[in-house]
Write a structure and sequence with these properties.
2 strands; 2 domains; 307 residues; mainly alpha
Length: 307
């Protein structure tokens, strides 16, 4: 019997290894466009419900809110309005014109309070909609940015609350002695909210620079080389953005923004220094793959044995 004709048995087929866990998780997270739109609709509905409930609370306390909003302006010394003095507004500066103005003014105050009171609700809904598409390290960065954005915005809003009556005092100081002033309630509220938004958003500028550095758009070297241009741009922006337009408000906004820019530059330089010490791959998260070394290596010739 010729044994050379015998065929060797084929090894059993080996099943492909299962996909890694991160890949399976990403596959499960993928949703069609319709599902994304449905999720967005649900998140927006919950956020709007939170704003509505916050507005109801703001309506309940609108008297206290209006007193604190108009109090600093109503107690400006040396200013006299055309309205009769009241215990809450001794200088008679605040007036309202029209039948519907008191109602719309109160509703605007309640709505603004509702947005602030419900900020934890709608900010969480925004985060819950975006979080499933982020990697683990991106979630950490996002939480850090949100945690820094809230106190920065509140700090800018608090500074605007202090600056606003001071700016009014300067501007109303140019009124001739033979004239009196009046501030309509709805115009005053719009003016005040614009002031708070400008100061609050402006204080987010350093956070935006740090975000650009995290995404690789700007570097510490580029920011350091153009620091004079940034400082000049800050003062020009402050002069154009402040609703009052007076030099006092411009300087009060520009100086903190300059200090925050210097702090942001320090954070960016510190981060790049840490990344340089880690050598690139040390900063990778568990969700990222390290770069592969594709350099071909030399193959040593095998030693031939005797037949």
């Amino acid at each position: 019997m010729d044994t050379t004709q015998l065929t060797k048995p084929h090894p059993p087929a080996v099943a492909d290894p299962p996909a890694p866990a991160p890949t399976r998780r990403r596959a499960k997270r993928r949703m069609p466009l319709r599902e994304h739109l449905r999720e967005l609709r649900n998140r927006v509905a919950k956020a709007m419900l939170g704003v509505f409930l916050g507005t109801v609370v703001g309506w309940k306390i609108h008297g206290w809110l209006i007193a604190h909003l108009t109090g600093p302006s109503c107690h400006i010394p040396g200013t006299h309005g055309i309205a009769p003095p009241t215990p809450d507004c001794p200088n008679g500066l605040m007036v309202m014109q029209g039948v519907m103005t008191p109602l719309t003014f109160t509703f605007k105050v309640a709505l603004a309070a509702g947005v602030v009171i419900s900020s934890p609700i709608w900010s969480y809904q925004l985060w819950a909609f975006a979080a499933p598409g982020l990697h683990r390290h991106e979630k950490r960065y996002a939480i850090g940015f949100v945690a820094a954005a809230v106190p920065l915005f509140l700090g800018g809003a608090g500074l605007a609350y202090w600056v606003f009556p001071q700016a009014l005092k300067i501007l109303l100081g140019f009124t001739p002695e033979s004239f009196s002033n009046s501030l309509q309630g709805d115009q005053f509220l719009d003016f005040f909210i614009r002031m708070i938004l400008v100061f609050g958003v402006s204080f987010e500028m350093p956070l935006f620079l740090v975000l650009l550095n995290f995404t690789g758009v700007v570097s510490a070297q580029g920011l350091t080389a153009r620091w004079r241009t940034f400082v000049m741009g800050i003062f020009v922006f402050s002069a154009l953005a402040t609703p009052t337009g007076d030099p006092f408000s411009m300087v009060v906004l520009a100086v903190p923004m300059t200090v925050l820019f210097v702090l942001a530059l320090g954070v960016v330089r510190w981060r790049e220094r840490v990344l340089a010490r880690r050598g690139g791959t040390g900063a990778l998260s568990p969700d990222e793959a390290s770069p592969m070394d594709l350099t071909p290596s030399q193959i040593e010739p095998s030693e031939r044995t005797g037949d």
